[in-house]
Every structure is written in structure tokens, then in C-alpha cells.
Amino acid sequence: MLGILRRFLGERSSGHIAHRRMQFVLMHDRVDITPDMMEAVKNDIIKVLSRYMEIDNRSIKVNLEQGKDFMALISNVHVKRVYRHASSI
Amino acid sequence: MAGKTIVVTSGKGGVGKTTTVANLGTSLAKRKYTVVMVDTDIGLRNLDVVMGLENRIVYNLVDIIEGKCRKEQAMIRDRKLPNLFMIPAAQTREKNSISPEQMKDLCSTLAAEYDYVLIDCPAGIEQGFKNAIAGADTALVVTTPEVSAIRDADRVIGLLEAAMLRHISLIINRLNVKMVKKGDMMSTQDIISLLSVPLLGVVPESDEVVVSTNRGVPLANDRNSKAGAAFIRMAARLNGENVPLDGEGSHGFMGRVKQLLWN
Predict the structure, then answer these.
(1) Which residues are bridge partners to A73 per DSSP?
(2) Cβ separation of B183 and A3 shorter than 8 Å?
(3) CB pairs under 8 A between A and B
(4) If DSSP codes are grouped into helix, strand and coil, which group holds residue B234?
(5) B201 min Cα distance to partner chain A (Å)
(6) What is the pLDDT of residue A2?
(7) What is the DSSP letter of B31?
(8) N or C: which terminal CB in chain B sees fewer CB atoms within 10 Å?
(9) What is the pLDDT of residues B132-162, one digit of tens each?
(10) pLDDT confidence of B217, banded at 50, 70, 90?
(11) Helical ranges in B52-187 per DSSP H
């Protein structure tokens, strides 16, 4: 009963949490990318994008996602505006 | 025809490697195959106590490799099954007193004479692990549904693949079905999707395992035990028989619905 109550309060089951955490941990273990390296990748993406558009630096998310037989780097950035001169660079 | 050499490994300690070796060995021997179990955990041997053969040891694995005895002298016959043998590890030596090449040679001589050679691997990924996997053509990776065991299993699978071991199967030990139903433990599917290795079987968590090790009689001798039955089915699958993963792979329709609701 307590479990159902928790569920309605929006709390995830611990088994689910463990699974999500392991997906993340194993992916990083396998490709051997440290959190520091991910941070560097993120900063470089910000640097490149900033030349063409104004972005919300705090909104950027960079994640590795494991598909069935591929891995994808997925980045989400909130764009505030695109610079007018961008096309002429 | 040469027998199969199978290493049972896990990375993390205490997940049930030795119990698995003892029970698979017993199950296969009950099917009339000749089986030899090799304890490679030098310095921390345990297969002898789990099998209840601790007071019969005269020679050990290192003695065979150093040529101090013939391999038949170090092999201990099981108390019940005349076609089941065990080679104990040395207790007062170090892991590096044998080399991967020596293990490879020993495994191939044993495989020429026996149907199954089961190798009990020490915890860790150092010298002892390298020795244990050197002579194996198949690997069974044991894990429990805990994050630390799963992470170590993944690491070990990577190392086994790097060592060109192509036949790797997974054993999930100590699954607590009640906790999985409540959503408080990773399910079999969760673990398989994380590790992406074929499943050999699932052993439910059970007090009987402790009792059987207390007595020194593997559970596979007792058909009424759930965990013992799981090992017997696993041994059949290992032997190439088609035994469905009844109730092990999934929790039925209602179970799945429940899990969806919970997650």
C-alpha cells in the first residue's frame, strides 16, 4: 500500500532508479568518458554555437544515449536568437 | 571428443561463483557426464568446503602445475557422485604461482578426458582472473540484482570479449521476486537490457543455499528446492538442451502490468 501511495506522490520505485543509474554508469564505463570530458565537450559546443546564435548557457544538456546497437550524443540547447550576420560568416 | 571448459566469473566477490560451480557440477554429474571442477582461487579456496570435501585434500592445483604430483592424485572424488571430481586451490600460495599458459595446458588435458571442466574464478580482474579464463572456451558471468555486482559484471564481460572469449552467458543469482514485484529490485529484463548478454538462468534468493553450504551438500542434490531446481535447469541448458526459462525470464502478464504501473 505504501508503494502505491508513493507512486501517486510521484516517487519512482528504487528498482527503476537503479536501472536508470546503471544505464548511465555502464555507458560511461564502456566508452571511458569521464564527467570532466563531458563537461569539456559541453563547453566546446557552447563556444561553437555562440558564434552563430545567442544561447542560454545554463540550459544546455549533453547526454550520451544508448540505443539497441548504437550510441548517440544528444544535446539540447535553448536558442534565444540567431545573429543576423551568421549567414555571412 | 574434447569436453567443454567453462569458467564461472563475476568480478565482484560474494555473488555466488563457488555455489554456482558446485551446483552446476553436481547437476551435470547427475546427468552422467564426467565433470571436474577446478578451484583457481589460490590463497582463498572455498570450493572444497562448499562441496564438503575439505578434509580430504592432500595435493592441490599448484602441486599439479609444479609437477609435485600427478593430476589424478590431487583430484578429489565427490562423496555421492563417482563421476564428479574437484581440484582444490592451494591455500598458502599466491595467485602468480601459476601462469595463464600453464592453466591453458591443464585445461586442455582435462578437457580431453572429461566431458565438463568447470573453473571457479577468483573475484577481481587481476592475475587470478587471467589464469582462470586462459583455458576456457565458455564463460558464465554471475551477477546479483545489485548495482555494484552489475557494474563489475559489465566490466568483466568487456574483459572476456577482449580476451576473445565468444561464448558468454549470464546467471542472475539471488533474485528476490517479491522485491521485483514491488519495484524495489531490478528485474531480469532490466539486467539483461543493461548487460546485453544471453541469459542462462535465474536463481531465486533462498535460505536453502546457506543451509546447503552449512552442510557441505550442494542444493542440486535436492529436487524440492527452488534454487536447486534452477541450477539443474541451468545445467541442462548449458548441455544444449532446450529448457524454457519458465517464470525466470518474465513474471507473466500480470507481473508485467504491475511493473508498468509501478514504474
Answers:
(1) A64
(2) yes
(3) 53
(4) helix
(5) 20
(6) 62
(7) T
(8) N
(9) 999 999 999 999 999 999 999 999 999 999 9
(10) very high
(11) 61-65, 71-74, 100-113, 127-134, 147-162, 177-182
**Cell numbers of B71, please?**
593430476
Cell of A34: 569521464
Distance CA A35, CA B209 (A): 41
Radius of gyration, CA atoms only, chain A = 18
What is the DSSP pairing of strand B84-87 with strand B35-39? parallel
Which of A2-16, A45-59, B115-129, B217-231: highest mean pLDDT?
B115-129
User: Residue B25 and residue B23: Cα distance in Å, rounded?
Assistant: 5
Domain B4-262 sits in CATH at: 3.40.50.300
pLDDT digits (tens, 9 = 90+) for B160-205: 999 999 899 999 999 999 999 999 999 999 999 999 999 999 999 9
Residue B152: C-alpha distances to residues B101, B123, B126, B239, B255 (Å)? 25, 10, 13, 27, 28
B184 contact residues in A (CB cutoff 8 A): 3, 13-15
Instruction: Give dist(CA B170, CA B116) in Å, integer.
Output: 18
Q: What is the pLDDT of residues A41-63, one digit of tens each?
A: 999 999 999 999 999 988 898 88
* Domain segments of chain A as ranges: 1-31, 33-89
Indicate whether this complex's ipTM tops 0.90: no
Tell whether B263 lies on the interface with A, counting CB pairs under 8 A.
yes
**CA-based nearest residue in chain B for residue A9:** B262
User: What is the predicted pLDDT for the residue at A86?
Assistant: 58
Tally of CB atoms within 10 A around B74: 23
Question: Which residues have a Cβ under 8 Å from the Cβ of A60 and sit 6 or more positions away?
Answer: A42, A45, A46, A75, A76, A77, A78
